[in-house]
Amino acid sequence: MKSSKFLHNLLNLQSNMLSFAYALTSNREDAYDLMQDTTLKALDNQEKFAEETNFKGWVLTIMRNIFVNNYRRTVREATMVDTTDNLYYLNQSHESTLDAPEDTFHAGEITKAIDDLPQDLGKPFAMHVAGYKYEEIAAQLGVPLGTIKSRIFTARRMLQERFADYR
């Protein structure tokens, strides 16, 4: 493909590239960066494009590969390898940036709030918090599935209102 035709086709694909990049990254700035990287990579590898190949597919495959490689690089860089003799760093607790519920409320306070819920709301909610699936709760209590979902939703809303001041 002639250089001018290649460039023309590449420029015509910019909107498709941006849409695909945004779908991959879910971030406008990252999408623009990915589109720019893809454009440069396509221009650098113009001689590798075969005439009978789908141009749009070729370019979007380059974009996907760049995205995957960048993701893998980010994961690899975030992985910590502890090379100390006694594995000091692996034995340290890693603090989460998110506040855990027990950091804001005492467990007893939360348990009391769940116990204070009306029985028809408290029992399904407590089972849900304990890890039961909606279907299991419905079967055990002999209540329709939709009713269980509604009761759990209502209980959650009541607890959020009760603890709204703590946010």
What's this entry about, in short?
This protein has 167 residues and is mainly α. Helices cover 68% and strands 0% of the residues. The chain folds into 2 domains: 3-78, Rna Polymerase Sigma Factor, Chain: A; 101-161, Arc Repressor Mutant, subunit A.
Judged by helices, strands and strand pairing, the structural class is: mainly alpha
In the CATH hierarchy, the third-tier topology of the largest domain is known as Rna Polymerase Sigma Factor, Chain: A
Described by strand count, sense and barrel closure, the largest sheet is: none
Overall mean pLDDT: 83
Low-confidence parts, pLDDT < 50 over ≥5 residues?
A: none
Percent range for helical residues? 55-70%
| CATH C-level category of the largest domain | Mainly Alpha
Indicate the overall shape.
elongated
| β-sheet strand percentage | under 5%
Radius of gyration: 27 Å
Please tell me the CATH architecture of the largest domain by its name. Orthogonal Bundle
Number of domains: 2
CATH level 4 superfamily of the largest domain: RNA polymerase sigma factor, region 2, helix turn helix motif
* Number of helical stretches of at least 4 residues: 9
C-alpha end-to-end distance: 61 Å
Strand element count? 0
Secondary-structure element series: HHHHHHHHH
Report on this structure.
With 167 residues, the chain is an all-alpha fold. It has 2 domains: 3-78, Rna Polymerase Sigma Factor, Chain: A (Orthogonal Bundle), CATH 1.10.1740; 101-161, Winged helix-like DNA-binding domain superfamily/Winged helix DNA-binding domain (Arc Repressor Mutant, subunit A, Orthogonal Bundle), CATH 1.10.10. Helix content is 68%, strand content 0%. It has 9 helices and no strands. The protein has helices spanning 3-12, 14-25, 28-44, 55-78, 101-104, 107-115, 119-129, 134-141, 145-162. Helix 3 packs across helix 4 (55-78). The protein is elongated and about 75 Å long. It starts with a helix and ends in a 5-residue tail after the last helix.
